[in-house]
UniProtKB/TrEMBL annotation:
Keywords: Membrane, Receptor, Transmembrane, Transmembrane helix. The gene is PLGRKT. InterPro entries: Plg-R(KT). The chain crosses the membrane at residues 53-73, 79-97. This is Plasminogen receptor (KT).
Length: 147
């Protein structure tokens, strides 16, 4: 009688463990999907911001370029054309970010860093552990209790 009961309990426990494992896996998959969705939305907002900024900056760049060129021709001072160069770099960067391949190049470089330069990504003092968090929590609670 005891053997049959313990066998049934073991089967139930095994099924319960499988169910919990499946549930944990499903929850993790949902969290990963949600985090990826949030990352994609943030990246889309950054690209949209860049495109919107490009519209305003492009207009500014066009007006400044016309004004500086006119001033350089009328005043016969080519030094007025100098600000066009750095402003052109900013315009080119924003265009590349909004419509070009900058994001793909950045992704490729990030993958290269993850593969070849992993040591650059290490946290100062190493990975945070439960023990280090507990130690900090205890020290912080001593400060609050001591006041």
């Amino acid at each position: 009688m005891g053997f049959i009961l313990s066998k049934s309990m073991n089967e139930n426990m095994k099924r319960q463990q499988e169910f919990m494992l499946m549930n944990a896996r499903l929850q993790l998959e949902r969290q990963l999907t949600m985090q990826n969705e949030m990352r994609e939305r943030q990246m889309a907002m950054q690209v949209a911001w860049s495109r919107e900024f490009l519209k305003y900056f492009g207009t500014f760049f066009g007006i400044v370029t016309i004004a500086l060129t006119t001033g350089a021709i009328k005043g016969k001072k080519p030094v007025f054309l100098f600000p066009i160069v750095p402003l052109g770099f900013v315009l080119t960067y924003q265009y590349d970010l909004g419509y070009g391949t900058l994001l793909q190049r950045m992704k490729g470089e990030a993958e290269n860093i993850l593969d070849a330069e992993k040591e650059r990504l290490q946290l100062p003092g190493g990975m945070i552990t439960f023990e280090s968090l507990e130690k900090a929590r205890r020290e912080q609670s001593k400060l609050f209790i001591g006041k």
